[in-house]
Amino acid sequence: MAEIAQVLVDVPTMQTNRPYSYRIPAAWQAQVQPGMRVVVPFGRGKRRVQGFVLSCGDQPEFDGALKEIDAVVDLAPVLNTEMLALTKWLAASTFSFQITCAQTMLPAVMRAKYVKLLRPTTQTPPAVRTTWFGDQPEVPFDQVATTSQAVSQLLRLQAAGEVDVYYQVKNQARRKTQFGVKARLDASAITATEGELRHGAKQQLALLKGLATLNGETVTQADFCQRFDVNPATIRTGEQKGWLQRVQLEVYRDPYATSEIKATQALTLNAEQQVAVDQITQAVTQDATTTFLLEGVTGSGKTEVYLQSMAAALAQGKTALMLVPEISLTPQMVQRVRGRFGKAVAVLHSGLSNGEKYDEWRRIQRGEAQVVVGARSAVFAPLKDIGLIVMDEEHESTYKQDDAPRYHARQVALWRSQYHHCPVVLGSATPSLETRARAEKGVYQRLVLAERVNQRPLPTVSIIDMKKEMQQHAESNFSAPLLVALQDRLDRHEQSVLMLNRRGFSSFVLCRDCGFVLKCPNCDISLTLHMDSHTMKCHYCGHEEPIPRICPNCHGHQIRYYGTGTEKVETELKELLPDANIIRMDNDTTRKKGAHAKLLAKFGSGEANILIGTQMIAKGLDFPNVTLVGVLNADTGLGLPDFRASERTFQLLTQVSGRAGRATKPGHVYIQTFNPDHYAIRFAQHHDYEGFFKYEMRMRHQGDYPPYYFTVQITASDLDEAVAAKRMYQLLQWLRPRLASQTIILGPTPKPIARVNRRYYYQIVIKYKREPNLAATLTTLLHETQAQQRQGLQIGIDVEPLHFM
Ligand SMILES: Nc1ncnc2c1ncn2[C@@H]1O[C@H](COP(=O)(O)OP(=O)(O)OP(=O)(O)O)[C@@H](O)[C@H]1O
Ligand SMILES: [Zn+2]
Ligand SMILES: [Zn+2]
Prior knowledge:
The chain is an alpha/beta fold and 805 residues long. It has 25 helices and 33 strands. Helix content is 33%, strand content 23%. The longest helix has 15 residues, at 271-285. Residues 520, 522-523, 538, 540-541, 543 line the site of one zinc ion. Its EC number is 5.6.2.4.
């Protein structure tokens, strides 16, 4: 039995990867195991923090007097051996702290919440007691320490031992429980008791008859009452008489309880699909850690390949993990997985409540779910014995987390594949350049689905030069050919999808007299007009203010709205096509839980003929009656200062085009653009991923960009611009001699959006091919910047950043 535990503590202002030794009280020595959460005292005073036990042993790492563990939070480890090892690797590879990684891997409700409390001591004078506590035994510190005077007064009282500051660790996780009913009498005792009942005790008789049918099983009280027509008061009577026992039953919050699943059967695969499934299944059987790139055009049936390969893993008694970019945006995918695997599926994504996420997580941890579908953080799902990991739309940037730990789910998936000896399938119609380049080199094995299912043709794509269109209809968002096509679809009772590309784009307010643009007071960008709330909002910090009628700068009255929002497009379209039934899908209409799925279901049922939306409608939709796709503004993303701008535009156009003509009727796509000759748009027009890949690789080679170079971005941010800038110049001096001479260091420069939420951002980008000293250097940087963080300066390290904005 171990007496000492090495604990990773949660101290935000003083993070370290070094565990602390604590003594395990004798009573818990048999119980405490690595991976459990504990509450421990930390530092001087009465501070309590949560921590994770990393290991148990008999030798402390430190030979002074050891403090004791205060409480054990879990009955069983919440991080298993794999997860503990993963935490360590994740921290090292993303240059973040292990505790942050451990917390990222677990449902949010398992994070500790700290409450700072003020308590009287035995020496508290009555006057002090009344002033600070009234008649309360303790008060929250923040409630009384409201001014700096109050704080200093309290500190003095604390020094004199007249008050005590105490930290409480609160566990936020709540299990949902229900009463269950269990019989305490056996069959013969029940019959005997029935005989003793007074005449007319109908309820009690019904209760006994019900208990007789249970055969030792426990059922929920609600269920019991309904089935045997017994009221809860009678249950309590039965309990008092010793006929039954009421027990706490745990119930799971099921996010999909109300939605029925239509069970589906495996489809007969076409030749290309069959090759892919065979290869993947073989790797599953052989426990091979092969990474496959499943490169399949839109509508080629990649999903069916995933499902049948996952079924193969399950058939061998293993589990399967499937990652999707953001499930609330692709409800169809969840339906397909649940349709195939039913109750074996657990779903994890940001649209669930914290309680639902916690319950799904526990179902997985207990082995009650063998299939997990989820967005980015589902890559940490505590599945055991994984047989296959699938990552759909592997090129999507939502797989990368923006905050520490800045991990990419693909990297974690590959790590787990090594741990579990299982293959990974990366699927996309438009793979990221990095992935496709690795397949070229043979690091990944490429599987190709070159044709749509049943040899259906890919849609015809027409490019419309908006410079010419604007000369004729200056004010309209719709070119003449697109409008004709829309009318034609209405006449033929077919459906259309219209996408407004909103990347780097917004509707803003401008003064025609002086040119003033209303900007966010905290950030470096213009505010966006929101007609639903009649306010101007900042999409970065959430700042909101009324729409101005008068120019704040020149007090003129010529204030006008510019740019195009989905609402404005919808209004215009209603005027142009009064007979159309339109559904609009954007951040405003999908804010409510489940709204996204509802709108899509409505469109799918044919209630509407036109779906207008932002990028969120580009992926995954599979509606057979959609024969027209229109992209209203293809190029708003092209001008962004980011070397991936062309790649993103190509991916988006290809994905959205792929929504057209997926079933029997042929599809047509119209792309409206001001850059009709841009290569990203031309290659998308011809569905030519391979052509785009070769061209873009040349561009990247010329510019020394990924995948030819690796990149790391370091940012500094501070409320004071000079502080952030100065720190970055110092950092440059510090870095240069530590890195190889061939390594390129760009910057420091202000970020393209230099100010967000009142903080100024500066960045340095390191580009390298081989840099043996980099890991050690960045680790040193991570630890050295701890002290500065406390003064408000924040340093961020981002390995292979996906955004340079
Ligand atoms: N072997 C098959 N036989 C018949 N129909 C199939 C077969 N495989 C897939 N399908 C159907 O073809 C359609 C397109 O498949 P799926 O949605 O999987 O394409 P995808 O490759 O994921 O496309 P995207 O990248 O555009 O999302 C679906 O309706 C699917 O049910
Ligand atoms: Zn802002
Ligand atoms: Zn003005």
